[in-house]
Design a protein that fits this description.
Blueprint lengths: L1 H24 L3 E4 L5 E4 H10 L4 H15 L6 H24 L14
Antiparallel strand pairs: 1-2
Length: 114
């Protein structure tokens, strides 16, 4: 039984070392948003600023508030912001199509038929 305990300890030590190596390779993520719960690395923040220069702060705050109010957790906050932006663009596109419809385009003179 003594060797079994030793093997378990060795395995735990190896796993601990592997976890430390993984942690060291991850970029440091900083806390953003009113609730300090949006985590972004410097590289992710640069991408966000480049992709959404006019409203990246608003997008961060939106995610921060949502996470704080619902308790939701996301693996990648950058991916979540991008996903929400894409969904917003799709909704805006659908809204534009509806706004472009004009009843005036479908008028006809007396005696004409469709």
């Amino acid at each position: 039984m003594g060797s079994l305990s030793k093997d378990k300890t060795s395995t735990e030590e190896i796993n601990t070392e592997m976890n430390k190596e993984r942690e060291n390779k991850r970029p440091v993520r900083h806390k953003y948003g009113q609730y300090r719960n949006v985590l972004l690395s410097d590289e992710e923040m640069e991408k966000l600023m480049k992709e959404y220069p006019n409203d990246y702060r608003k997008r961060i705050e939106r995610l921060s508030e949502y996470m704080a109010s619902t308790g939701r957790i996301y693996k990648s906050h950058l991916a979540t912001i991008r996903s929400w932006a894409k969904r917003d663009e799709e909704k805006a596109g659908a809204g534009k199509a509806a706004k472009q419809y004009d009843h005036g385009n479908y008028q006809f003179a007396a005696g004409e038929s469709l």
